[in-house]
Amino acid sequence: MTNKLLFPRWLRLPGLLITLTGLLLFAAHEKGYEISWLNFSTKSSSDNLLAMFTTNYTASLSFLLILLGLVFTAFSRLKQEDEMTAYIRLRSWQLSIYLCVLLLGVLIAFTFDIAFLYTSFSLWFLLLASFSIIFYGKIYLFRRNN
């Protein structure tokens, strides 16, 4: 049984490198680094129609790189795809979804206003990262025991 919705196997390593690049860019952005060519001017929604403000999309680029890299890593095909890897993939999805739902319950109980929005946004990254960690960890343990 082959799954047609998986990426080619060779995209796993570029996915890891793209994720690492995005994480490094996000860490640099948190320290104050901004990419100069990502500055954009936009009209303000104030009464003065000519008022402009400038924003930088370095954080958005880092989030996009992290998300793209995690998708490539999570959905890349293994060298040998069979029913057991499909089962392990399914169980890993279940566990990562349970983890995210549990965390969402904690977020609903303890965070409010804009902090809830920021933390719930990060659940997408947690879902993909936890799936990749659980899946490749289970594959490693399965291959080591067999």
Provide a descriptive summary of the structure in words.
This protein is mainly alpha-helical and 146 residues long. It contains five helices and two strands; from the N terminus they run αββαααα. It has a two-stranded antiparallel ribbon. α1 runs antiparallel to α2, α2 runs parallel beside α5 and α3 runs antiparallel to α5. The longest helix has 28 residues. The chain is globular. The two termini are 21 Å apart. The relative contact order is 0.14. The mean pLDDT is 87.
Describe the structure concisely for a colleague.
The chain is mainly alpha-helical and about 150 residues long. It has helices at about 10-30, 60-75, 85-110, 115-120, 125-145, and strands spanning about 40-45, 50-55. It is built from five helices and two strands.
Explain the layout of strands and helices:
Elements: H1 12-30, E1 39-43, E2 52-56, H2 58-74, H3 83-110, H4 113-121, H5 123-145
Antiparallel strand pairs: 1-2
Helix pairs in contact: 1-2, 2-5, 3-5
The secondary-structure class comes to: mainly alpha
Assign a percent range to the helix content. Answer: 55-70%
Major sheet description: 2 strands, antiparallel
The spatial strand order of the largest sheet comes to 1-2
Query: Tally the helices: what do you get?
Result: 5
- Shape annotation: globular
